[in-house]
Design goal:
- The protein has 760 residues and is of the alpha+beta class.
- The protein is 28% helix and 24% strand.
- The chain has three domains: 198 residues, Aldehyde oxidase/xanthine dehydrogenase, molybdopterin binding domain (Aldehyde Oxidoreductase, domain 4), CATH 3.30.365; 157 residues, Aldehyde Oxidoreductase, domain 4 (2-Layer Sandwich), CATH 3.30.365; 350 residues, Aldehyde oxidase/xanthine dehydrogenase, molybdopterin binding domain (Aldehyde Oxidoreductase, domain 4), CATH 3.30.365.10.
- Strand 7 and strand 8 form a beta hairpin.
- Helix 14 packs parallel to helix 18.
Length: 760
């Protein structure tokens, strides 16, 4: 079984690169990891003048400000980090505040070694480090209070920002900070040795406290990238070519644009980072004038090598590559499926496809850039500051250490803001005009230049023995490789056949927890798709398509074996070998969803059906065990109406129950949107859909009932932002089959496709 070796064990934080410091400064008590010497502290997000200050500070009035190294795009991860710190610190929730980190290397993730928000990793990978940060602060405060009171520290209790002794006057955090005596350092070994609370001791973890970012957002105090205003700032509007990637600008006539009031300059991008090709920016004194100037430009292009490609071209190429015996690399290679299939009693073979999908967050892409001497300041909401800072530097032609990213709140991300294309025009325009420039994409810019979820083609072949037992499964996955596009070797995975690294983020999920003695998974990169549709990570990443194929095929196999699809899955989740532990947790979530939905016990009307699916998203080593029962009604026209989605998820330790249910519900609805409604197409090298009239995500009128069951068993905390996305489409597809006998193998599931497969 292939493992994503670069991740390490999620429950183990790498503290060896840092020492933990606690000390008093003029403005209060500050706590953090001593990191790499980087950008001058005057540019950092740390609130205190203790150098360095990383995860949180306590001011002289007792306010605890947590610095979140993760992008907060509405998932409230900043509040989650604060809640973890608050638990071990012993603070009162009313004293907690949050702020977002800069791109200073000291804020790098303790496990990944980079600042990145994705994969539903944030809570999973930072729970331990933030807990130890809180505990270290509590110890330092307690020792200072003990010295002041003249009592042993073991006799003190800490709760609600107060340190108490049965016979002494209690001291507040504020009083201890003002005393200046709370100072202590911890070596990495000492940090690791701190005994953290056990779940039965929690008073904050597992409590639905109010999210700290909601009040400033509701009163307009929270600043998003689109809100940034800088002294002397002007605006840039981009003009993008009709071809998604590979076009070049032959000529620009800006004579009409020069007549627009406030017009400043036209800038043709020369992007050495290869993030963009063929882009032009019109710069003016207002955004409206920049838009008018952009519309007035007359640009001629060389369409480049991808100008004639279409979605059909990509699909045809994917099928050609899959048919080659030597294509791709193996992600899983166990047993001998080919030999096992020759002796199988029944063999099933199927093709599954997904189309291009667009992120389209409500806040379109934007960035503001300003040069201050040798330092480039970029203001934007971004999910991958480590990489984005380097791209901004490349666009400016400067050393990355001279780039400061000011992290803003994100109006949606879903993987879109892992990329930094919005920074390139802002940086080059600012350099060209000598003023701060803010670039705001139009919705059309955003959709046609999205780093989309790739079109995928999958072929699955599986065999059953005479008893209906699954004995072999071979799975080929063909797509663009989004992670390989980043050019970061550590994010790739060695193939098991030693043919070189592969992009495991295109096949994760195919290494499922079902016991199958003969199992191959082959990852095949389509260079055509890689070049024509530079793809990114869309919420749920590979499991959004791999589980579509896996869970659909498992259902098909169950019906071929004459078994109930849910019971068939339970039989495969026996926990043998490397599947031990995970299979049992997945089986429990399936049973929970079945029980909550009344699967197998409800009398359904004609044309209605229930379908199941269960997944280990995001990855084997970072899984949140999730199952869904979908209840659908199918009209004679083939139109599918989802009546209810019942989702059960095992999250280990839940930090904020309300936040978890909101994330799981949102993920389920996102999965529904992808399953039934969303589709983008490539024609003549360009994305055809330009706005919400032609790209049609789920509308409020199409909302079904969603019921969520959260299993919190005290295991290590997992992620919840994405896993439920991956379970919805196969559950719906399986429900459609149970309702009307129509097996659809392409997403989205359209009425036309269902009607064509319906049994008359």
């Amino acid at each position: 079984m292939n493992k994503h070796v670069k991740m390490g064990k999620p429950e183990t934080s790498d503290l060896s690169r840092r020492s933990f410091l606690v000390g008093s400064a003029a403005t209060g008590l500050v706590l953090g990891y001593a990191g790499v010497t980087g950008i001058d502290q005057s540019f950092a997000a740390a609130p205190a003048n203790f150098d360095p200050s990383i995860w949180y500070s306590i001011s002289r009035d007792g306010v605890v400000t947590v610095t979140c190294g993760k992008a907060d795009m509405g998932q409230h991860i900043a509040s989650t980090m604060a809640q973890i710190v608050c638990e071990e610190l012993g603070a009162n929730w009313k004293d907690m505040r949050v702020q977002l980190a800069s791109n200073d290397p000291k804020f790098n993730d303790p496990v990944l070694g980079a600042q990145i928000t994705g994969g539903s990793w944030s809570t999973l990978m930072n729970f331990d480090a933030m807990s130890r940060a809180g505990a270290a602060g509590r110890i330092a405060l307690t020792e200072a209070a003990a010295a002041a009171m003249g009592v042993p520290a073991s006799e003190l209790t800490v709760r609600d920002s107060m340190i108490s002794h049965p016979k002494k006057k209690p001291m507040t955090f504020a009083e201890i900070v003002r005393s200046g005596k709370a100072t202590k350092s911890f070596t990495p070994d000492e940090l690791k040795a701190i005994k953290l609370k056990t779940p039965d001791q929690y008073t904050m973890i597992g409590v639905a406290v109010p999210q700290l970012d909601i009040p400033p957002k509701t009163r307009g105090a929270a600043k998003y990238g689109i809100d940034v205003m800088l002294p002397g700032m002007v605006y840039g509007a981009v003009v993008t070519p009709p071809v998604r990637y590979g076009a070049t600008v032959k000529s620009v006539d800006d004579s009409t644009a020069k007549k627009v009031p406030g017009f400043i300059k036209t800038v043709t991008l020369d992007d050495k980072t290869a993030t963009t090709t063929g882009w032009v920016v019109a710069v003016a004194n207002t955004y409206q004038n920049a838009r008018k100037a952009a519309e007035a430009l007359k640009i001629t292009y060389d369409g480049g090598p991808n100008a004639k490609l279409s979605s059909q071209s990509l699909l045809d190429e994917a099928k050609r590559l899959q048919a080659l015996d030597d294509s791709g690399q193996f992600f899983v290679k166990e047993g001998d499926p080919k030999a096992a299939l020759t002796s199988a009693a029944k063999v099933l073979e199927a093709e599954y496809t997904t189309n291009i999908n667009i992120h389209c967050p409500m806040e379109p892409m934007n960035a503001a850039a300003e040069f201050k001497g040798d330092i480039l300041h970029v203001y934007s909401g971004n999910q991958f500051p480590t990489r984005s800072g380097a791209i901004a530097a490349g666009a400016a032609g400067i050393d990355p250490k001279h780039v400061v990213l000011h992290q803003m709140w994100l109006g949606g991300g879903f993987g879109r803001r892992l990329d930094a294309d919005m920074m390139v025009p802002a940086v080059q325009a600012a350099k060209a005009v000598g003023k701060p420039v803010k670039v705001i994409y139009s919705r059309e810019n955003d959709m046609t230049m999205d780093f989309s979820r790739p079109l995928t083609y999958q072929k699955v072949k599986a065999g059953l023995d005479g008893d209906g037992k699954l004995i072999a499964l071979s799975h080929d996955v063909v797509s663009a490789w989004p992670t390989a596009r980043w050019g970061i070797p550590d994010f790739l995975t060695p193939s098991v056949d030693k043919k070189g690294p592969l992009d495991s983020f295109t096949v994760n999920g195919a290494d499922f927890f079902y016991t199958v003695p003969n199992h191959y998974v082959r990852a095949i990169k389509s260079e055509m798709a890689q070049n024509a549709t530079p793809s990114g990570q869309l919420r749920s990443v590979a499991p959004g398509w791999t589980f579509w194929a896996v869970e659909s095929m498992i259902d098909e196999l169950a019906h071929a074996a004459g078994k109930d699809p849910a019971q068939f899955r339970i039989g495969l989740l026996d926990g043998k070998g490397e599947n031990a532990g995970g299979a049992q947790r997945l089986r429990n979530t399936l049973l929970a969803a079945m029980g909550l939905a009344g699967y197998g016990t409800k009398q359904l009307a004609k044309g209605e059906g229930m379908g199941v699916a269960c997944v280990s998203s995001q990855e084997r080593k970072t899984a949140s065990w999730t199952a869904c029962v979908a209840h659908v009604a199918v009209a004679s026209s083939g139109e599918v109406t989802v009546k209810k989605l019942t989702v059960a998820t095992d999250v280990g330790t839940q930090v904020n129950p309300d936040g978890i249910k909101a994330q799981v519900s949102g993920a389920a609805l996102w999965g529904l949107s992808l399953a039934l409604y969303e589709k983008a197409t490539l024609k003549d090298g360009g994305i055809e859909q330009t706005n919400f009239d032609s790209y049609t995500p789920l509308r409020m009128s199409q909302m079904p009932e969603v019921e969520v069951a959260v299993i919190a068993n005290g295991e290590h905390a997992t992620g919840v932002g994405e896993p439920a996305v991956t379970v919805i489409a196969p559950a719906i597809g399986n429900a459609v089959f149970n309702a009307v006998g129509a097996r659809v193998r392409s997403l989205p599931i359209t009425a036309e496709a269902v009607k064509a497969e319906m049994k008359t």
